[in-house]
Amino acid sequence: MQQNMNTIRKILVSQPQPTIERNPYAQMAKQFGVEFDFHQLIHVEGLNAKEFRQQHINPLDYTAVLLNSRLGIDHYFRLCEEMRLQVPETMHYYCISESVANYLQKYIQYRKRKVFFSENHNFMDLLPTMNRRPNEKYLMVMSDVHNDATIQQFEEKNIIIRPAIMYRTVADEWPKDVPFDHDMVVLFTPSGVQALLQNFPDLKDGEKIIACFGQSTLNTLEAAGLHAEIQAPTPECPGITTALQRYLETHLS
């Protein structure tokens, strides 16, 4: 049964609740009289040393690490510690953003000559720096669910990067005492889509309004036969909250 667009009252956001009181969700709740329910559908767990060794990778065989999140940093240093590997001070770190690079200070003494980051959240921005180091050997910290596009892009530039899976995404079971009575569901990752379907295998297209962030999330939705009524990023709506704001203005104002 197609969801009635004019009866949006309760929206499930598959992320943790914002810690800042003044946030876009709180503002929309007040403006449109809707309720936002924050509930993660997945959680991340790290591989242990035994599991990681099955990939036949020794992190110390590499002179540089590519890092796309703080989570990746945590699991890289955790696994090295579990395997009793002393990360050398000469290791180079290539980070997807400045905030990720700054997080390295939790584990190392930050020096600009060994930490590099993109200002545009794009690893390819670091290509000139990498080309100046032709003997560098690269390891990229990844989840079990990942996109190999970055690795393929570098390979096209004759830079070989070894993927290293150090953590995985696991579906959470929906609490049996919590009703799934939301009019809209907001999804951010392919894993979130898969977790939703694992918990609610009978969910049919049109039963809920679905909002999704990212092309890979959209692809996973469509492969499951579900339609995303709201999508981001787009030129008009770079973020999911902007897309939600526009949608609610159209259907509830």
Summarize the structure in short.
The protein has helices spanning 24-32, 49-53, 70-82, 98-103, 127-131, 149-156, 190-199, 215-223, 240-252; strands at residues 10-13, 35-38, 42-46, 64-67, 92-95, 115-117, 138-143, 161-171, 184-187, 209-213, 230-232.
Description of the molecule:
- It is a single chain.
- The strands form 2 sheets. The chain has a 6-stranded mixed β-sheet with strand order 3-8-7-4-5-6. A 5-stranded parallel β-sheet has the order 2-1-9-10-11, with helices on both faces.
- The mean pLDDT is 93.
- Helices cover 31% and strands 21% of the residues.
- Helix 1 (24-32) packs parallel to helix 9 (240-252) and helix 7 (190-199) runs parallel beside helix 8.
- It folds into 2 domains: 5-41 and 181-252, Rossmann fold (3-Layer(aba) Sandwich), CATH 3.40.50.10090; 45-169, Rossmann fold, CATH 3.40.50.10090.
- The two termini are 24 Å apart.
- By secondary structure, the chain is an alpha/beta fold.
N to C succession of SSEs? EHEEHEHEHEHEHEEHEHEH
- CATH T-level fold name of the largest domain: Rossmann fold
Major sheet strand order: 3-8-7-4-5-6
Relative helix content:
25-40%
Largest sheet: 6 strands, mixed
CATH architecture of the largest domain: 3-Layer(aba) Sandwich
| Extended strand count | 11
Query: How many alpha or pi helices?
Result: 9
Q: Identify the overall geometry.
A: elongated
How widely separated are the two ends? 24 Å
Task: Please indicate the count of domains.
Answer: 2
CATH C-level name of the largest domain = Alpha Beta
Strand content: 15-25%
Stretches with pLDDT under 50, minimum 5 residues:
none
Please state the structural category.
alpha/beta
The overall pLDDT average reads 93
**C-alpha Rg, in Å?**
21 Å
